[in-house]
Amino acid sequence: MMPLPPVDRFNRVLVAFVEMKEYFVSISLFKDMCVLAIPVDRCTINIIINCFCHLNEVDYGFSLLGGIIKRGFSPNVVTYTTLLRGLISQGKSVEAERLFKKLVVFNEIKPDVVTLNTIIVGLRKTGHTSIAVRLFRSMDMESCAPDAISYNTVIDCFCKHGYVDRALILLYEMTKKGISPNVITYNSLIHALCNLDRWADTRRLLREMVIRNISPDVYTYNVLINAYGKARKTKDAENVIKLMIQRGQYPDVVTYTALMHGYCLHGDINEALSVLNTMRRKGLSPNTRCYNILIYGCCKNLKVDEAIDLFQDMPFEGLTPTIEICSRILQGLFHVGRHFEAQKFFKEMMPNHGVTLDTETCNTLLHDLCRKRYVVEALSLFHIMEGDDVIYNTLIRGCLQNKKYKEGCVLLDEMHARGISADNSTTSMLMDLLK
After folding, report:
1. Global pTM?
2. Which family does the record assign (predicted)?
């Protein structure tokens, strides 16, 4: 076009491709602009630095810093914030902290709360809690006051790592500074307190939310229902569901799954199955986790037929049974002495549903059966699966530990006939028996 459009038009095109996550396209267009001598500005180069950071090529991003200076511009807060975020996303958190402190010392940038929040959130996501906390504590010293996002990020860091009392101190620190906590603040704290069974503190925070006119969201209620379920306080969990409906928050799949889990832990399988029917009536589709919890509960409470019915229902919900679900049903069948059905399930039903147990899962299952003294059941399953060196060694050790010496010797002879050697653990156990 003549005259050439201003540079901001080109920048808009580049940004449009970035929003579509077409980072390579933006970089390619930038190269064309340079070849065709189309003017670029600092904003253009910042966009391309951002592209390289998204592509985990932060070193190329740093190489463009020279391009900014060469064209008579100075890198700004956006430039360095982008590069810092790029370093963090590539796991170079120590380098990011070092660069940030250097920039502040040499007055290259005057960080604002947005810059620091970007870095702290990034550090939290990559698990570098201690660095995030150090930077958070330096915010006041650098005349950059933290806001609600800063506090929420560090509170969540403390809660995730079990330092809930330190997180509570931060809650009261932020309120003293006139920074209002929100539902995100309280969700992190309530989740951590529930995990520690600190019910009195949990109730106190819920009362605080009411006083501050902060409405719990679905996540808050789900955390409470899950915690009550694990603590086998199913009545309390039911009351929370009634309360959330009264307050205009409607239960989702996570809500009902948490309630199911509580009933299964309590041994109320019929109530758990009733929750599944409630979900369906409300138009909510159960997921694999729902079935996993129900099948585990059924098998644990010796209701294997109900577990198999659920297993057969899964394809009608568009779900494929997992290896974990099949392992639970196998254990359940062996546990109630239905060996023939377990073998049939392994040889027929599982393949028909597209599930085959890998060696690691078979080994874990055999080890678990032996640990629970179901050696006969383990041998029964072993005879219908392919045995490798790991499985042979596991089963021989199981036989020896349960004083099934004859069965162990038969397996040992069979293993040697196949050219498989006993591992150190099995050999050591055999040597101890011969002493």
Report:
1. 0.71
2. Belongs to the PPR family. P subfamily.
